[in-house]
Batch of 4 targets.
Target 1
Amino acid sequence: MSQQNQVIFNGRYELHRRLGRGGMAEVYLARDQLLDRPVAVKVLFPALATDAGFVERFRREAQAAANLQHPNIVSVFDWGEANGTYFIVMEYVEGHTLADTIREEGRLHPDRAAEITADIAAALGFAHRNRVVHRDVKPGNVLLTRDGGVKVADFGIARALSDSTDQSLTKTGSVMGTATYFSPEQARGAPVDPRSDIYSLGVVLYEMTTGHPPFAGDSAVAIAYKHVQENPVPPRRIDPSLPETLEAITLKCLAKNPANRYPSAQDLRADLRRYLDGGRIMAEPVLAAPMDPGATNVMAPTAYDQTALVGRQGYDADGYEDYDDYDEYEDEEPKRSKWFLAALVVLLLLLAGLLFLLASNFAGGGDEEVPQVTVPGVVGLTLEEARTTLTDAGFEVEVKNEASEQEPGTVIGQDPEPGVEADEGSTVTLTVSQGPEPVLVPNVVGKPAQEANQILTDAGFVVEQQFAENDEVEEGVVFEQSPPAESEQAPGSTVTIVISSGAGTVTVPSVAGLPEADARAALEGAGLTVGSVQQAASNDVPAGNVIRSEPGQGAEVAEGTAVTLIVSSGPERVSVPNVEGLNEQAAQSQLANVGLSAQITDQQVANPGQDGVVLSQSPGAGTQVNPGATVSLVVGRFREPEITVPGGG
């Protein structure tokens, strides 16, 4: 921003340059004029400032985060309203995001990943003790300082656990956060607690050690579904060199059931410190089960999470390797040997069965009754909870899906009914909701954001807005949506619309003091053009160098904008006045008036009328000289002739 167009909020925060853009706000580097320190100012998009829901969420961010003073949390200093929108003033952290580090460097060393996770856990633990859940833990919200420190930023959708007014901010079925790092309960739109942050942090740890998150998909809905229904590929399947203990910590964080995760962020941090110190951890390593070539999922029981997947599960997204085939982990055997072993096992099983029947008949046990067990009620539970309850009671479980207004994954019926006595080991059939019948997503591309939001809301969808620069689409108009128009989606699912924030801008670089040719190259390299070159005298800038540009350094302008260069013609020249014939005092006064000085040289004259008068000057009248130059003046000096008296005798 040029000095003349400098934006100052509340007469205190002077905005300098934009640092980044998020889903609902831009962040600027600014200077706190009162305390003379750099700060980061998050400014809500003006288009959202009229939306009471967004404004309330923005206000809550400031109030929730302002009370969190911790070495691993970005501090919030102030918030307010200015220029028709709202802003938050935060600590300015020099460094880069964890997302940038993973994108540029790939997977991190396991110990470094554990150290970063421990610091994030320290920040979350402090927030949780203050009854605040972050709800959007992801690499983009983790800042790594230049000295290796870790700070968690953007409690943008955090809310106090004790706050009972949140229903006024969130429609039924609406969830907030980032789908890649959702906890299963967030994906279902269910209430969350601090253990939801632990799950999201587990996703971040998984990404740091493997180079990619555990789940990917074509849409936020697809990814959210995987968080609820699928199990992650264990990290050591991707990189066998990873420590077993760190894999165990990661999978404990990623347990589907919150009860199987770490009880608190502090417990997670303590386990990470034990891992780093070489001690015994709380989580227990995954026990790999023998592979079944026909199996899709093989569950390996652990002391902390019965959902750890150690069988096959494909992951082929964003160019990552496909892990559907794990035959490389098995010893190869000749096919004849395998068939022989299989036949031998079958024969042994048949023989054992015949022996059991014979023994039963001889013992008179042929009429022995099967134990009866009361069928527990599981309607209303999640499929995972219901399956665990019935299995613990001694029943087998069969599942069928059915469209319903109930949350997907919720049990809506069972057979036999609750309370019925049934044979131990018999099957209970569960009817599980797969959500409402899907509906077609309306086409809102090309519509103003407010109209698009209304159309999608009326159709039963939750709308997530994002903003992006677009040179071809008018500001405030939707130019992209996901899922695409006319696709079938469940009511209550999220549709993301991308709204044009106008043409992209370019920051005018500093060219002051550069030779004209170098300044021209710098502007063209930044995507700008040189419109005209104007000359101006300068006592400070050498001739041929740039004094300034218009627009000036830091101004945000459209790409291709023509910039005017003001080039020095050298120091400003002064015309020497004519002072010959003037008395000495008058001559010096005239020279001083134009910024020149006088050097006086006396010359004896015989004419009394020339006494004290300038006889000549150098340089002569009209000569162009630099300001402050010296003009030599020759001034007449008359002396009375001496009278000699003849001497007497």
Note: Residues 158-176, 288-337, 362-367 have pLDDT under 50 and may be disordered.
Target 2
Amino acid sequence: MSEITGAMLPWQWAEEPSESKHGDGVSRPRPGSRTREYRVMVYPRNARPVTWITQAESKRHAIRYAAARWPGAEAEVV
């Protein structure tokens, strides 16, 4: 059998440490809080921009939630 290098088998994947934080009040509003819908443009490092539609209490909270989900990315409400 020949040696295959540089390829990953279907059941293998690279374990990358996740720096994102998730939970009520961190990456999404707390249950029962008054929210409205915001469109957030997220610009992750070394990746294409993402348009994320989320519920948040204010623009400041929407940007905070995006920063928790995509650490190190730039975010703006559009």
Note: The mean pLDDT is 85.
Target 3
Amino acid sequence: MRPCRKSRVAFLLTTVFTSVIFVILTPPALAQVPAPKVTITGLFDQVTSAGKNFYDANLARDNDREWYARTRFRPDFTFEVGRTKAVLGLQIDLAYGQTGSNDGGFPGNNTGSPGGIGTATGGTKLFTNGNLDLNTDVGGMIKIEWIYTEFDLTGKDSLLPFVPVQTVARAGGQPFASLANYKVGVYAFGEFAGVSAVTTLAPNVKTSFAYIILEDQLAGGNRAAATARTSRGEDYAFVVSPEITPFTGLDLKPLYSYFHAEGITSFWTRRNLVNRRTVGGVLGPAASMGGGAPAGDSTDQEDRHTIGLDARWRMGPFGLDPTIYYQWGTLDSQALTSSGAVKRVEADMSAWLVDLIASFRTGSLLLELRANYSTGNKARDNLSKSIRYFQPLDNRGTYYAGWAAIMALGVDYLNGVAMDGMGSNIGYDRYGRAQLGLRATYTITPALSVYGIVSPTWTAEKVDTDTNSGLVPGAVGLTAGRTTVDDKSWVEGDSRYLGTEVTAGLTWRWAPNAAFDLQGAWLSAGSALNTAELLNGVHTRREANDAYTAAARVRLSF
């Protein structure tokens, strides 16, 4: 008996389908599997620095001084198979000698506070995670900076090969790098957990996308009453930033970013500031965000939008790096009405940041001029209703780095982060920022260069100097700012001039992959850094004093 036509067709289809699956699942016999490869890059730093009067963010009290030394080990392990790779970046920061009431590290890894006052919390030097005391037997000191996988998401030989354009994706803990901006510290520069993708649409057109997870809510974390929940809510952000090169020498990087927070959030993206009409007196901590549990109330939310452009242009010896961002949105907080009642109030956000760098090179001399301006609030403004200061998503304290050593990061990159929050938050307290910088670098030989920097600095709005200065009460992390003294505080502004910093230094690359850096800086304090305090119940003004620092570093890169 002959099989029916339907049976033959079914048999044929089954055979073809089986053959296709076999071909897909069987690797080509002639294809060569790439050999796995592991590489290690990184650096060793040995740093020592001394200074006076800038560690505690109060220049009117000048008995804060130190001379310390530390070491940093920063290895990056890269594991590669073909075009797919994984990166593990580690970091160890150890101070020479015991600098706190314990050695730091686990289980008591309390990082110190500005000015070495980490001894009060049993910690160590700011941003170090341990102390090399006598016999140097410390443990539990490794920090994980990066831990991500990079792979081809679309394009040929990718996860989604049917999409014709090439996209390289990353998942895990990763650096922002240039996902959001070119210029260091203007919006997003540190690290984050999440996913990112860079798509090449044409040789001169790319798009960057990043989804950032700041805080996540686990199952059941939102079951209790709002003020008793263990969850800090869902805090996230995303960045969309094309990269366009219209012609050689000009790169344009537009930006749109959205940030959402529930209850309190990371101090890197929202600074804590004193505000008399806010519950608890400080905008940012849990009391101002619903009170009750340490996380506050996750129904008090923030929605922040940022748009703008970062660019770089090179033509012969000339260069121009302009940045302009505008920010808007809303922030919920718990505020006091004129009758003393507590209610939720929505603050309106509107802020600008403009940052320009112009450069000119002639022979061995490089001249650079930098100007920046960020908007701010007046002393009397109620921050529960109006926010006019610009807030980066995360710049890890790097704004203006390399252009100062007291008001920004210098050779000793652990100092300068906490100088009134200007490295981390760009503006001074709520008052914004206006600054000029002139930097001249002369390359004596390819191995030896010297430089000098002058940076006069002001605020956009006048600072009320009938306030004190230091760590904001109730703040977390490194938040420094102005604090309330009495009823004369927060009435009117007095001065915009923060001071002028003069910095000089040299870099000597005396051997392959080895460099020696030496740097000194002096801050001539301006009247906007003056403070007030109560002495025997009397409102007393104090003038700011100058500050200085000197640092040396030996770096081995590998």
Note: The radius of gyration is 27 Å.
Target 4
Amino acid sequence: MMLAALREEVLEANLALVRRGLVVFTFGNASGFDAASGLVVIKPSGVPYDVLRASDLVVTDLEGKVVEGSMRPSSDEPTHRALYRGFPGVHGVVHTHSRYATSWAQAGMEIPCYGTTHADYFPGPVPVTPVMTASEIESEYEWNTGQVIVSRFRELEPLRTPAVLVSGHAPFCWGSSVTEAAHTAEVLEEIAHMAYLTVTIRGGAESISESLHRKHFFRKHGAGAYYGQVK
């Protein structure tokens, strides 16, 4: 069996989404990318998480050809491939329909940085994509979803801003591994929930100052970071 270690990591990431309450039924998927072989390991389409095994996962190449597995890959597999092709350094992608992050996506609104929890993880608002056109939806919808995301990040660094809200749809998160991407999905949902509560409590709430935002982001990220322990 190819990519055995990556299969186990992708399985654990998929199951973690359920444990963390980010996925119900089969509303989500996680994948991992092996740069050495150029292969993607992803959840099969529509398979319930409570019966999912590592051997069920599907392996495809970056063109979408199934190279190992007897089931269809996730219907979102073309979006995952588009992100791996468009974002060098990304080796894990997670898609959920978690309640609060999806609600912001359905509203077509980015998530502003209302506090330092958000600032610890994202250097700016969590971006939202433009509404997809009819032609994008009617032809190669899932691939075009990925292209819309990549286009939205033309002036952003994907590994600095590791999530997006697809307008009218739901969030996608990514990272240098699928484990990291799953962690980001949990963080994103918490931030989305806090942002919702913030504007519910005070409709005119404003983003925190740029200086406070930068302080919290860069104390965890970059050359001068001092949060946590030296690795």
Note: Residues 114 and 208 are 5 Å apart (CA to CA).
